[in-house]
C-alpha cells in the first residue's frame, strides 16, 4: 500500500460545486461555523468506520504513517513545508492552552486580545492572568476605527505587554487585521505573539517569516474542510525546543513506537513540535477526514479558493450597493467572511426570510454573518440581497 492510499481523490476545480455533500436547494453561508462536508471526505469517513470492524487490518505503524502524511500535507499547504513545526491537538482551545502554559507571564503584566474575541482565545488568558496576577486588555475600535488601528493603539499604550493573542479576521464579520503591521509592533513592545487562525487558515496565507509568531493555532473543521477534534498547533523553533505539553501522551515521546517505557528514565520528546501532539489524534477517522480536506484544498489551490470566495462576497457588496443598502456592508472584510449589518428593527424579519428560503447563516455580533462556500454561485449571492431587501 502506498502511504497516501488512504487519502480520498480530490475533485477538479471545474466540478467544485458538485464536490460538497450539502443538501440540494440550500445556500450555505455558514462556512465559518462548520466547513461544508466534501462528498469524498464523507465517503472516506464512512469507510473508516466500516474498517474499524477489523482494526487489526490497519497496523499501528501504518496508522502512524498516516499521522505523518497528514502532518506533511498540512505543513506543505499552510506552513511553507515546516513539518517539524506542526503538532496535532483536539481543539483550538487546547492549542491556545499550550501557548498560555508556556509563555512567561509575570504579576502586573498584560495580555492583549481583541474585544469580542472568540472565547477559546480569551478564557484561557483570563484564567492564566488570574493565577499570576496579570491582566487581560481588550482592543475595542472606536467608531470608524479599524481593528488594526485599535490593536496598534493598545500595543502603544499598554505597559508591560507580555502577550498579544489575535486572529487574522474577526469571527463575527470577517473584519481583517493587518498582521504585517501588528506583528512588528508586538515584537517591538517585547510581547510574545499568538495567532488563532481558525477563521482564516486555508483562505488567507500565513507569513511565518514576516510575523515571527510564537504559536499559531487553528481548528481543522472550518476552512480546512476537515473534521472536528483535529486542530493544528504550530510552534516557533524556540518552543518546539523548550516547550512543555499540557499533557504527557506516549505518542509525543520517542520510544512510543517500540513501546518501551521504564520508571527510571523519562524518554525524550519526539522531534520538533510533535512534543505537543495530544492523545487521541491517532484516529483513522479524523486523519482520513483531515487529509481529505487538505488534499482537496491543495488540488484547488488556496489563492484560487480565496479568489472565488472573494468574488462571492464582492458580488454581495455590489448587490447591496445596487439596492441602496451600502450601510449594511462590513468595510474591510476578508474575502470569505462578511457581516450583514441589518438594522436592529429588521433583523428578525431578514433572518426569518433567509431561513424560509434555505439561506443558511447565523447571527453574530449585531448582524448576520455570511461566510459562503464554493458550492454557492454569484447569482445566489445576488438573490440573498434581494431576499434581505424585501424582508
Ligand atoms: C476564532 C475561532 N477560534 C476557535 C474556534 C473554535 O475553537 P475550539 O476548537 O476551541 O472550539 C472558533 C469557532 O468558531 C473560532 O471562530
Automatic annotation (TrEMBL):
Gene3D superfamilies: Aspartate Aminotransferase, domain 1, Type I PLP-dependent aspartate aminotransferase-like (Major domain). The keyword Zinc does not apply. InterPro entries: Aminotrans_V_dom, PyrdxlP-dep_Trfase, PyrdxlP-dep_Trfase_major, PyrdxlP-dep_Trfase_small. It comes from the Bacteria. Keywords: Pyridoxal phosphate. Residues 63-384 form the Aminotransferase class V domain. This is Cysteine desulfurase.
Amino acid at each position: 500500500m502506498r502511504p497516501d492510499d488512504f487519502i480520498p481523490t480530490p475533485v477538479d476545480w471545474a466540478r467544485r460545486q458538485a464536490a460538497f455533500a450539502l443538501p440540494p436547494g440550500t445556500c450555505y453561508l455558514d462556512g465559518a461555523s462548520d466547513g461544508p462536508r466534501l462528498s469524498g471526505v464523507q465517503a472516506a469517513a464512512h469507510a473508516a468506520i466500516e474498517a474499524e470492524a477489523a482494526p487489526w487490518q490497519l497496523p499501528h505503524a501504518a496508522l502512524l504513517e498516516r499521522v505523518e502524511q497528514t502532518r506533511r500535507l498540512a505543513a506543505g499547504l499552510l506552513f511553507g513545508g515546516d513539518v517539524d513545526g506542526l503538532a496535532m491537538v483536539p481543539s483550538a482551545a487546547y492549542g491556545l492552552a499550550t501557548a498560555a502554559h508556556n509563555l512567561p507571564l509575570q504579576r502586573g503584566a498584560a495580555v492583549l486580545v481583541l474585544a469580542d474575541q472568540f472565547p477559546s482565545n480569551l478564557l484561557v488568558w483570563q484564567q492564566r492572568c488570574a493565577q499570576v496576577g496579570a491582566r487581560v486588555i481588550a482592543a475595542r475600535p472606536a467608531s470608524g476605527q479599524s481593528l488594526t488601528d485599535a490593536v496598534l493603539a493598545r500595543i502603544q499604550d499598554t505597559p508591560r505587554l507580555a502577550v498579544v493573542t489575535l486572529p487574522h479576521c474577526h469571527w463575527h464579520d470577517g473584519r481583517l487585521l493587518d498582521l504585517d503591521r501588528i506583528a512588528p509592533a508586538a515584537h517591538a513592545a517585547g510581547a510574545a505573539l499568538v495567532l488563532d487562525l481558525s477563521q482564516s487558515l486555508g483562505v488567507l496565507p500565513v507569513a511565518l517569516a514576516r510575523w515571527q509568531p510564537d504559536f499559531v493555532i487553528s481548528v481543522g473543521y472550518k476552512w480546512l474542510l476537515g473534521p472536528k477534534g483535529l486542530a493544528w498547533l504550530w510552534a516557533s523553533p524556540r518552543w518546539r525546543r523548550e516547550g512543555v505539553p499540557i499533557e504527557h501522551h506516549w505518542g509525543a515521546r520517542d520510544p512510543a513506537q517500540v513501546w518501551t517505557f521504564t520508571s527510571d528514565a523519562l524518554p525524550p520528546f519526539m522531534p520538533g513540535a510533535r512534543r505537543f501532539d495530544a492523545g487521541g489524534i491517532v484516529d483513522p477517522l479524523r486523519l482520513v477526514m483531515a487529509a481529505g480536506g487538505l488534499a482537496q484544498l491543495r488540488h484547488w489551490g488556496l489563492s484560487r479558493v480565496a479568489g472565488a470566495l472573494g468574488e462571492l462576497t464582492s458580488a454581495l457588496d455590489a448587490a447591496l450597493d445596487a439596492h441602496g443598502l451600502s450601510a449594511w456592508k462590513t468595510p474591510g472584510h476578508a474575502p470569505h467572511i462578511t457581516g450583514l449589518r441589518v438594522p436592529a428593527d429588521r433583523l428578525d424579519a431578514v433572518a426569518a426570510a433567509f431561513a424560509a428560503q434555505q439561506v443558511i447563516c447565523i447571527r453574530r455580533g449585531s448582524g448576520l454573518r455570511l461566510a459562503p462556500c464554493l458550492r454557492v454561485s454569484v447569482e445566489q449571492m445576488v438573490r440573498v440581497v434581494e431576499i434581505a431587501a424585501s424582508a
